[in-house]
User: Fold this.
Amino acid sequence: MIISLMMAAGDAASQAGPGTDWSAILAGLRDLASMLSIAIGLFFVLGGTLGVLRLPDFYTRLHAAGMTDTLGAEMILLGLIIQAGWSPMTLKLLLVGLFLLVTSPTATHAVASAAHQAGLKPLLGKYRAPDPTATAEEGH
Amino acid sequence: MMEVSLAYFNLAAAFFVLVSMALMLGRLLLGPTLYDRLLAVNSFGTKTVLFLCVFCFVIDRPDGVDIAILYALMNFIATIAVLKFFSYRALDVSLADAHIDKQVTKGDKV
Assistant:
């Protein structure tokens, strides 16, 4: 909503005539918002990729890929939508975002469910959840 | 001035999405189980959609987003089809008849 307000204000200010050049300032703000959104999306996408490479287990990798891909993709598409402004491009990008928002968690769930049915066990390391009574005795 | 810097920013974003795709290819080659590879393929497809969207802003041709829509749908259908094939060893199984209990006994080969 803020973005659409900014766009409308930019259009109105471009017709306001000389004085302070508000349209350039608002265009700069729009570019800045777009860059910020794309940068956040790239952070999530690269972080998820590193997680898929580095994490020890299939289910943890699934967690890294499934969660960050959804958020990162939506943030990058939001940044592109801010750049595109009001155009048919925005509609197409919204369509891509909608498809990704529906299909990405569904595919993640399907992969996890199939792996679980096939009997793939999660990796359990040496770490156990700390027992509160045991730690209390060690504290004394 | 601002337009030029935004174009360079988009180019850098496309490059980083490509780097992410290359790293995901590493998991695809290394993945110990079938499901690791499937996960990598699915994630690779999502990143391909992102790369198409960003890159058609870089080269300023809006046609690429149509291909991205198509690719998003194809990617999902391909993942589900491969999963179904490896779960039931056939594609012409009605999912309404396939029960989960049947698969636990013969799924240990995967």
